[in-house]
Amino acid sequence: MRKLRHQRGEIACPESHSQLKNLELTAVGGSDVHVKMLAAPINPSDINMIQGNYGFLPKLPAIGGNEGVGQVVAVGSSVTRVKPGDWVILAHSGLGTWRTEAVFSEEALIRVPSDIPLQTAATLSVNPCTAYRMLMDFEQLQPGDSVIQNASNSGVGQAVIQIAAALGLRTINVVRDRPDIHRLTDRLKNLGAEYVITEEELRKLELKNFFKDVPRPRLALNCVGGKSSTELLRHLAPGGTMVTYGGMAKQPVIASVSLFIFKDVKLRGFWLSQWKNDHGTDHFKELILTLCHLVHQGKLTAPTCSEVPLQDYNHALETAMHPFTSSKQIFIM
After folding, report:
1. Enoyl reductase (ER) domain: from which residue to which, for each copy (predicted)?
2. What is the count of structural domains for the chain?
3. Which residues are annotated as catalytic?
4. One domain, residues 170 and 233
């Protein structure tokens, strides 16, 4: 990780050794917007991008971070949609948020209310958007229907719990067993989770009795792969859909032939970047406004976060990659 200092602040970006270098900000003009970054999280996709194994890679040299919130400092003469003082998030990936200041084009920015919590604004444009679209786009769910997901304590998982609760859906939330499992269970239930079970409990035969009282889920959300995803599929309702949006176990999704023949299950994938490419910036802005409305209603909050100064990026990255990390690392500029 290399830390670069420019005239107006600092930039964190990947490199094999640390060094300092002077950089200058581009002058603001035309459709340019000078933004002071306020906060930016570390997401698994950010790590994947740095490692070079993500679906989209920016041109090098590049600055890390695809999500965050900033405040407009100055605007060019042709800018009409934002003004100094506004809070903004990025409409596109790969622009780099792990820095103190930047100049972006107006079309790359989306204004968000400045009266929502800072951590919520900084983590609004990736995980909650993924959660909302997966809940809305694959099955026509009605209040009372159930959804099952693994990696339920992840950023997306926590957003799924809250958004599903706001929609009247019941969530079956699968997590890995751990020493503080009771604390994690209580935290997820406080967010609106109806059921929290471990991977081991999901594999037990007694779970058949569980589905005598709870409708089998028509939608499963998979961020793990391997055995975990196979278990999700096993409990799907006939004709149900499993949507894969991550592969934390780095193992393939394996489905038995009988599930396709006798239960007609469907396997789908979701990638928010592709959704944005297919639907355009205006639809993405509508999605952000919908989520901000849930925030104002008190139905959506940020995942559990640990605030870290940008200068401590090494420690933050190491923590973000550590197993069983239940708190998202978020740079505070």
Report:
1. 18-333
2. 2
3. 54
4. yes
